[in-house]
Design a protein that fits this description.
By secondary structure, this protein is of the alpha+beta class. It has one domain. Helix content is 16%, strand content 40%. It is built from two helices and six strands, in the order ββαββββα. The strands form two sheets. A four-stranded antiparallel sheet has the order 2-1-3-4. A two-stranded antiparallel ribbon has the order 5-6. The C terminus is likely disordered.
């Protein structure tokens, strides 16, 4: 099981992008590298192994909470974005 923090950024070219980072870093400190107007959600995440017969390498990603320093909450759809990054999936919208 792994825990961390994340933000979702709305990029001009690729749309929503998930960025995950160490839970020891404050959201606001990490934000200094990005345009705040582009960050649409932020929170905490956890990754667990969730093997199935169909996919023995499957994972379960849970997102929750909010970034107090950014005043942004996590969203349900964030879990799909983070899983896409962790599984290196091409497109979650198809």
């Amino acid at each position: 099981m792994k825990n961390g923090k994340y933000i979702i950024i709305d990029t001009v070219i690729t749309g929503y992008v998930a960025i995950m980072f160490d839970s020891l870093i404050a959201h606001s400190d990490f934000l200094k590298s990005f345009n705040k107007d582009r960050i649409i959600s932020a929170g905490f995440f956890q990754v667990k192994s969730a093997p199935t017969d169909k996919d023995p390498d499957d994972i379960l990603v849970s997102c929750w909470g909010k970034s107090v320093t950014l005043n942004l909450e996590s969203k349900t759809e964030d879990e799909k974005l983070l899983k896409r990054v962790l599984r290196k999936e091409e497109n979650i919208y198809t």
